[in-house]
Design brief:
The protein has about 230 residues and is an alpha/beta fold. It has one domain: Purple Acid Phosphatase, chain A, domain 2. The chain has five helices and 13 strands. It is globular.
Length: about 230
């Protein structure tokens, strides 16, 4: 059983939403995802998808994307992304999936899920590129609350390590989010994974150990649409 991670699948089985504006890597990306997932994932594996799963604007529009994701082996754990407009309460999302015979997808949202001796936590986060007004400040503060709730939930799991999965990068070139980075350090997060950046945005991504936390960039186009093996 292995742990994998990826972000930004941008599936669009039921809607017409091309991604080629972000460069040639996104040409035929559906087929690239299928190839990358089929050659990587096996039964018993766990895959964390760190946001931007589907272009559907509601659960019904996203259903075919969920079915495609469910067609691959592995348990899938989804973190919310900025384009996941289909997102609803966890109760409603789980009910919808179960009603459509999808039982291998779950959500990391104000909670933590144990993988062997590692607590998997996460939230969407927030990013410097957004307009900084009163509304965005409220969203940012809510994201801090959700991240801390997820990290607190990990404390009761008896895990030896904590991994955090964010959609927005908490740091990149010329940018650091001190509030999020402080939470990661305070709760002893050992690894943090993030996505969101595409095309030329890849040059902004930072990987490596900063202040004791290892950061990995997992946007799908950066990984050639093949999930990153986190743990064997």
């Amino acid at each position: 059983m292995a742990l994998y991670a990826i972000a930004d699948l941008h599936l669009s089985e039921a809607v017409e939403k091309p991604m080629d504006v972000f460069g040639g890597a996104w040409e035929n990306y559906r087929e690239k995802i299928i190839t990358g997932f089929q050659k990587t994932l096996k039964s018993g594996d766990v895959l964390v998808v760190a946001g931007d799963v589907s272009w559907g604007i509601n659960l019904d529009e996203a259903l075919l994307d969920f079915k495609l994701l469910s067609s691959f082996p592995a348990k899938k754990l989804i973190v919310k992304g900025n384009h996941d407009l289909w997102w609803d309460t966890v109760t409603k999302m789980k009910r919808f999936l179960n009603q459509n015979d999808i039982f291998d997808i779950d959500f990391i949202y104000n909670n933590s899920i144990l993988y062997e001796n590692i607590a998997l936590c996460g939230t969407r986060g927030w990013f410097y590129e957004e307009e900084q007004d009163d509304h965005s400040e409220k969203i940012f503060r809510r994201e801090l609350i959700r991240l801390e709730a997820s990290l607190k939930a990990a404390e009761g799991l008896g895990a030896r390590q904590i991994y955090a999965f964010l959609h927005y990068p908490p740091l990149c070139q010329n940018y650091r989010c001190p509030e999020i980075l402080s939470l990661l350090q305070r709760y002893g997060v050992s690894k943090c994974f993030y996505g969101h950046l595409h095309g030329f945005g890849h040059r902004l991504a930072k990987e490596g150990v900063f202040d004791g936390v290892e950061f990995r960039f997992i946007a799908a186009d950066y990984l050639n649409f093949t999930p990153l093996r986190v743990i064997s």
